[in-house]
Amino acid sequence: MRLFGFQIPPVFSLLFWIALWEIAGQYELAFILPPFSDVVSELFILIQRADFQDAAMLTFRAFVIGMAISIVLGIFIGFAMGSSRMANSVLGMWVNIFASAPLSSLVPILMLLFGLGQTTIIVTVVLFSTWIIALDTYAGVNHISPSMSEMGRSFGATRRQLLTKVLFWAALPEILAGVRMGLIRAVKGIVIGQLLVSVVALGRLFRTFSDNFQFEQFWALTIILFIFALTFSSAIGWLENKVEYYANTRG
Amino acid sequence: AQENGTMRVAFGDIPGGEMVNFMIAVARAEERGVKVEVSYLQSEDLAAQAIVSGQADIGVGTPYALIQKVNAPIRMFYQLSMLRFYPVVNGEKYQTWNDLQGADVAVHGRGSGTEAIMKLMAKENGVTYNSVSYVPGSGVRAGALLQGRIDVSIVDYERSRLLEREAPGKFVFLPLPEITATDEALYANRDWLETEQKAVSILVEELIKTWREINMDPSAVATLRAKYNVLPDIEQIEVDELVPAFTQGVSIDLYPSNGGNASSVVEDFTFFTSSGSLDGVAEDLEVEDYWYLAPVEAAVKKLGTM
Amino acid sequence: MSDVATAAPLNPASATPENIVEVRNISKFYGSVHALDKINLSFPKGQMTTLLGPSGCGKTTLLKIIAGLLEPSDGEVLINGKVVNGPGPERAFVFQDFALLPWATVLRNVAFGMELAKVPKAEREDKARHYINEVGLSGFEDKYPHELSGGMRQRVGLARAMVVKADVLLMDEPFSAVDEQNRRKFQEDLLHLLAAENKTVIFVTHSIEEAVYVSDQIVLLSPRPGQIHSIIRPEISRDTSPDDIRRDKKYLDAVENIWTDLRKYLD
Amino acid sequence: MSDVATAAPLNPASATPENIVEVRNISKFYGSVHALDKINLSFPKGQMTTLLGPSGCGKTTLLKIIAGLLEPSDGEVLINGKVVNGPGPERAFVFQDFALLPWATVLRNVAFGMELAKVPKAEREDKARHYINEVGLSGFEDKYPHELSGGMRQRVGLARAMVVKADVLLMDEPFSAVDEQNRRKFQEDLLHLLAAENKTVIFVTHSIEEAVYVSDQIVLLSPRPGQIHSIIRPEISRDTSPDDIRRDKKYLDAVENIWTDLRKYLD
Amino acid sequence: MLAATSVTPHAKGEKSDRLFGMSDTLFYRILSVLIVFGVWEIAGMIPISIAFPTFSSTMAAMFEMIFDGRLIYAYGETLKPLGMGVAISAFFGVTIGVSMGLNRLSQWVWEPIFVVLQASPVAALIPLITYAYGIGITAKTVAVIMLAAPIIVLNTYKAVRNANPSLIQMCRSFQGTRLQEIWIVIVPNAAPVIFAGLRLGVAAGFIGVILAELLITPTGIGDLISYHRSIAEYDYMYAAVFTIIVFSAVMVGFLETVEIKYFRPEKKKV
Ligand SMILES: Nc1ncnc2c1ncn2[C@@H]1O[C@H](COP(=O)(O)OP(=O)(O)OP(=O)(O)O)[C@@H](O)[C@H]1O
Ligand SMILES: Nc1ncnc2c1ncn2[C@@H]1O[C@H](COP(=O)(O)OP(=O)(O)OP(=O)(O)O)[C@@H](O)[C@H]1O
Ligand SMILES: [Mg+2]
Ligand SMILES: [Mg+2]
User: Per the CATH hierarchy, to which homologous superfamily does domain A57-248 belong?
Assistant: First the structure.
């Protein structure tokens, strides 16, 4: 986008939207939309609250554990699908179903099976993110030119060497793309889980704020979540770009 | 303090001012060596599900229908509050019960006392609603009424006063016959109640003591909250409303002083069978199929009836 | 046309010492697709043999069976008179699409075979540098494949195969992803490079000129199921300049003969 | 070497009627990349001109400027003496990657130019069938591109360009995605096909043999920024058989000369 | 002038065996389904919790609800806002996406906002919808749009942006107009990715409508879930959840078929 000969970077359009929001808020055009500036000042108050910090820490820890599990599991399933026709047809069916199913409807059942603690959040994260990581890993493995593994074999690579020195790295760009999508899905999954079941305080805060018409706080909480999701996914996006750089010669 | 057992309480609602009295009793029970873990779930039926599946021990609500339907040995054991609600309609659209044919109604929760009242009145006036939606929290429903998002609902005494104050003349309160029934009770698995006898009796005793204290002097709720540092994170608006709300509650006998007994259960049977929440005839229902009164009877004996 | 011997596999059975690779009675089915049918071939030590034939006739299949990357459905491969199953250090493969690791530098790529064999880092990098220099890429050690042109990438692939000191080099259309002019240059360089190393090379190509230009022996395959159509030994003297070779009557005759044979298979 | 005219563009300024396409003083910058530098060229009517040069010298750029698909940074293109901006019906393009619509049958692909021009369906399909037959694909009208081999796809691309009756055919490495043997066949077929049509053809290739084999005039470009290095007219008689052409001294000389010129640009 | 032979596509993979008269993959798939359901049945029989019904009772409940019409009625209710929301998101989403792909200004304005919406948990906003749109079908439709639109927009945009440049140049070389270029080349070329976006949009919209039914007012399939949960008929609740998973799998498959049938004829034969 150019204006008066200047290049205006895309993020600036966000500022444009925020300005619109501020105006709508200042003129009280919609009562659910308080001025953006109020939301921001509320945001700083919110992050100092003890209940928010507790909820955030608990959720964050569960999130990290869950992501670690689903990355390992997803990559494993993806490689299994990529290396055996049978695993592909059997696992592929389940992975595809779960990757596109509205898993949120399962969340209340998860609570029942895994209790009211951290485990449920971890399982939610795993359930929402594993399948897409598996699918992308599989796509990555499939994308590897057969000559890559033949090259390894012709130099006498063991199975293990082939996996760790060739195939894993060759599939890495897709794996990372999958991890990024899995991460976004996991954040969404946690929020949906919180809204439906509200095991930890995050969902409770949402309810309290919307029930008491505290829209500044409500938006502040939403924005914190947005920022969290965006920061994480762009961090992985950055990694992805670095890897693409090495990998962009592939056919 | 010595170890007197553990209990996990699951609420079907977010923490708010109306839970302060309960949490004060919990704090006192903790002083006496009962370990209490509280969780707040999105809705009452989720909380009930948590009790049934053993993820929590104590639930809050009136699960008559649930007990009748499912074979899980759930029993209520303490009457927390009475059903005191005020059906309210938007005066521009409706005036009487008979107008509510085909209306959209909002009540507290599925299987709740508010739903039972609205169902009962529909039956008595021969009308059928178009839909019943579940909007937990009288405050939320009052807000929605003021915003014009809903036209027919039922709110507690405090919010009925609020509606009159905020929009005088806009809302019509529909008449109700005299109703004596439980709004919220504590319930738990029967086996659990028997094995955790000690903890349960401590909790029940503290509940009765707290309830009585508040009934004597509603402003005690604020001082006790400060003393025990109960629910420190609830919003300031709710803190400000605390004493007025409890004062109003006490004035309409919202908080029973004796925690329920056989005759209050029979009154419940009458109301919930006529509203349709319970199947069958009130006379045929057995108290011990729904309530486990031993702890409350023992406590009342110890503390004296009021 | 004295130099064109028609059909009949060379030394079908005897494992004379000068035949470093022998293929005996190889057949290959992919499911119901019959790719190769009873192939018998000998590859004399130190010579360059080209597999030539229409698309889909099984050249790649045959080469990969020799490399031990594919199992034949029937028959066996002998290296130095011994039956082999699977890849071995006597053979090294050069791939059509280069098969370089995009995340590794030229140096690491060239040394990759030794890395797998756990040769110490200093030693393998030393050797790798030598061959990087041989293929004309010195100065590019620390570049990544995507920073090189197609021709340069294939030189990396060649260096990687040379550095492991295998006696037999297997090349599957090594120039097909390289542009014409670089390809021509590369052919000249390849001959030059191999002259010094006494390697046995088995080479797959679609280009008749390329086959005649580089080979001692050309194996023409017929379409699926691949069978040996004829074996041709152009017997061109390689002492003259590249341009003279391309004007040599033997060269031109061989090209014309092969073209006459092959064009009837085209679609 | 009488037939190799060195440098100096042919008829630089005069728009003689026999030059159907003229390129005047064309320069092209991609941002700061200087791709073409002051190119002046004439393309005689009914002849085949080849653009030849090292990779990245701007061949594709020049061809697309002539086609009107790219704007030159400076200079102009004349068709039949008139300055043109943008594509026109006198020119048709054959793409390196074929550019077939994957969701359309061979028939619809070939008729696509006329579909855009809103020619009635029956009429355009009739004409399309004729050229499908000409390029040897009759029977494949209802196939989709992915069901064809590379060579067959490019024949579809050729038919699509022929059917609109443009006087000038622009081809960007039309054979680079086709295997060698089919390519050789395709070259022969192309000459045969064009002989009957009196088309002017501008052709980009990397293959020196191909250029010399098919062209009346070869334009050699130097590396970036692309400039005209020399213009060569092989003047080979095309009445003899393909094999005789490939043995013709003029042919072999031209190939050798061009190779000598170009090999110094290689990496 | 040429003797043409058709080309055999490279058949990939190992050969397939047959077991019990069916292909072995089908056999193992069915086996895996049986194992999963078997484990479910056993877990329900132990039981791992009173609130965890067996597979067989869940199926019984499901068929009961199918045959007494409750499920069909519930899906009717759920599909109303879903259908409306998806239709609106598809129409505006594809339009905005195409305009972003073709026009720099439109891209500048919309891209960041949709990227943010796509990467963030918008579901958090569902409780707010009630304040703006009440508790009726409008609110649910809005919930669907909020979840479905971003992915449709972004996929369409990417598809249009990455339309094969040589196809576009081909069209231009035949003097195609801009409109022809868009409708005859760019859009069909982008169709598979646009459709992938629509499929994802439907899946996201489905989540939206179920969330709305569980969070705003219980109707349709969400009502079946929360009603049966409230009266502890867990087998019916599980049956409802089960149908959601099956239904969405069937719907995604159906969309794939529609796409191939009407937009990519060349894939039909594969
Ligand atoms: N993995 C496979 N599964 C099934 N069929 C295969 C497989 N690989 C090759 N084929 C078939 O086997 C035949 C021989 O294939 P191969 O790749 O060896 O031919 P080629 O001579 O190398 O062809 P090209 O000149 O195109 O490289 C072909 O018809 C091909 O379709
Ligand atoms: N869109 C573009 N933006 C920037 N630079 C470009 C672009 N297209 C081409 N170039 C540069 O312009 C120069 C000429 O490109 P062009 O594609 O015309 O070369 P070419 O002679 O066709 O090369 P090749 O033989 O590889 O096809 C190259 O150096 C290339 O990197
Ligand atoms: Mg091959
Ligand atoms: Mg080019």
Answer: MetI-like (1.10.3720.10)
